[in-house]
Amino acid sequence: YKVTVELNGDPVVMELDTGASVTVVKLGPLKKTVHLRAYTGEQIPVIETVDTRASYRGWEKVLPMLVVKGHGPSLLGCDWLQELGLGWREILKKGLGTLVGTTAKLYVDSGVKPKYFKPRPLPYALREKVETELQRLESEGTIELVSFSEWATPIVPVVKSDKSIRICGNYKITVNQASELDNYPIPKTEDLLAVLGGGQKLTKLDMSQAYQQMILDKESRKFTTINTHKGLYQYTCLPYGVSSAPGIFQHTMEGLLQGISHVEVRIDDILIIGKDDTEHLKSLEAVLQKLSTAGLRLRLDKCCFLAPEMVYLGYKINEKGVHPVADKQAPVPRDSTQLRACLIHFDATKKLILSCEASPYGVGAVLSHNMEDRSDRPIGYASCSLTQAERRCLEPLAFAGDTSHYSHYGRLMEQWLLMEHLEGTPVQAREIKTWNQQDPTLSKVHKYILCRSEEALCPFFVKKNELSVEDGCILWGSWVVIPPPARKRALAELHEGHPGSSCMKALPRGYLWWPKMDEDLKITVKNCHLCQLHQQAPVEAPLHPWEWPERP
Length: 552
Known about the structure:
single chain, alpha+beta, Alpha-Beta Plaits, Ubiquitin-like (UB roll), five-stranded mixed β-sheet, 14 helices, 27 strands
């Protein structure tokens, strides 16, 4: 994204780059003052530092910039973005934002007795930092001092990577036991990594203290009271440690950013991808506009814009795939069982191969893509241990379990699984099928087996040893098998005189038969109107006259 900025009255086209900490141009005599390094680590020669008058859309200020040697575009860095009113000034301001239009609410069972815990003793080394953090939270309006509360939760100070303190309430022993859990689904890591295929550049937006930018409902604030050595404090916004906080915030963010393509949200992390810079910047601008309208703020030092690779959810991600980060890499493998390949992105246009393997103690699988160079690149791994009963059927269990585990990657998986399993066998199924069709004996056996499975032939299959043919008629012993066209006439002859179902069954014995003949006879009698009128009536009770009374 490029803008035209006037430098000392001369228009200069500069490329907006939030990844650049300073503003640089390609002009001037040699005078090295500072050291700069590019994203790839190579050093950029600095010629001089100059102060220039910059103006853009009504903004005009004297700002410092660095003159460097090179052939790339002029970069407008973060130091100028704030000064010239570029790059969403409000959303990049330091401090907490306030999400407008919605509040968080905790649903606590009114029948549960309130729980009050005394403050826990703090290590002396952390006491001063905790007090400083409490003062900061109170000055920002995140917490407020209260004199009384039925609910009180002890705090747990968490030391962050920059040695600062984050105060969390141990709500699992208080409100989390009495509140209803917000079960809104949080995206799985593998699902988020699967959508990264095809993205040339990545942008990650990180919100500053995300939960605390969401106002907490006034009725819910009493449940979040924390008990410290400085007294009772009540949260005015959504605190860390509440079991429903992730679901509430995930639901809110997905609703806020819905409709914007190439955007994935996982609680307070927003990931933007795009096939090219134009598509990427369009999605980025739409996301920033939504966040700015909602009153949210980002933490610029944790955001990453238009990067060819980044660390996300514990993985290093780039155009080629997913890789382990340096601090999580396994030791150098010493044998084949310890080898682990780097993962690639899932691509719905490429072929899938599921390789399964079973051992006496467990099953495992590798889901791979078949690449253009005919190599297989893994997408994911899966494994599990087996019980004593499961060890009796290792191979089928490996197929069933691994196919179920990766079923969300596509329905064509089963076809590739079967092909993978049969590959390399001495005799292929298609060869045996051809030979069966060519052999005169096996072709008849094949046809007979297929016919045997038909429902209409099952009654004849049971009597196969008693069937014979005489003058073209099929006989079951001495009984003639009546074909379907003659069965209606046979039923009419047997029903003449309306003898009833029992007599009708006895008449053809030794002469006629066809499958389900008794059922057809019962239906014939049941559907006959005269038979129903003259069916056997109940036995009449004997007449018994009234006895004459002996007296009135």
